[in-house]
Amino acid sequence: MKHHISSSSCKSKDDLQKRRIKAVKLWEKGQTQYKIAKKLGVSFEAVSNWVEAYKAKGWDGLKSKGNPGPDSKLTQEEKRKIKQAILKGAQKQGYATDLWTLSRLRDLIKKIAGTKYHPGHVWRVVISLGFTSQKPEIKAKERDEKAIKTWKLKTFPRLKKMGAKASF
After folding, report:
1. pTM for the full model?
2. pLDDT in tens, 80-102
3. Strands of the 131-134 sheet, one edge to the other
4. Alpha-carbon distance 50 to 58, whole Å?
C-alpha cells in the first residue's frame, strides 16, 4: 500500500484537556450534549463520557491520562530527524518516486534511529509525528483536459436533453 504523507496539526494533551473542560462548562450552563458535540466538532459519545467523568471525579476526571502503551523507543531528536527526512521526500532518500510506503518508512526509521519496527507499528510512529495518510491522485498520461471540458460543456448537456425525451 502506497501513501503520500502530509503533516497535520495534532492537538496537545493540554489542548484536549481544555476542550473537555470547555465541554463540561457548556454542559453546566445548560447546553445539551448534542449541541456541545456539534460546537466542538466531537462525537456525542465523547461529550457524554466527559460529563460522566466529571460527575464521578470532578475536574480531575477530565485530566489527560497520557498515551496508553509503552514509551516510545525513539528519542525526541530521532523523531525530529525522521520527520525532517519524511518532509524532504522519498526521492531525497534515494527512492525512484516520492511516495512513502510503510516499508520505506520502516527502513528510514532503522537508518536514522537504528530501531527496527514491525510493519504494523510503523504507521503508529508516523502518526505520532503528525502525519496522515494521503492517497495519490492517479491520472492517465493520455488524459486530454481540453477534450474532457468540451465533452462536459457541450456533449453531456445534449445527451441529458435527449434522455428526457426518450420513452421507456
Report:
1. 0.47
2. 999 999 999 999 999 999 889 99
3. 100-101, 2-7, 131-134
4. 10
All three cell numbers of 61, joined, read 476526571
Give the Å distances, CA to CA, from 45 to 15, 24, 28, 55, 63.
19, 13, 17, 15, 17
Integer Cα distance of 65 and 136 in angstroms: 36
DSSP one-letter string for 59-116: GGGGS----SSSPPSS-HHHHHHHHHHHHH-SGGGT-SSS-EEHHHHHHHHHHHH---
Domain chopping of the chain, boundaries: 13-62, 70-134
Between residues 43 and 73, which one has the greater pLDDT?
43
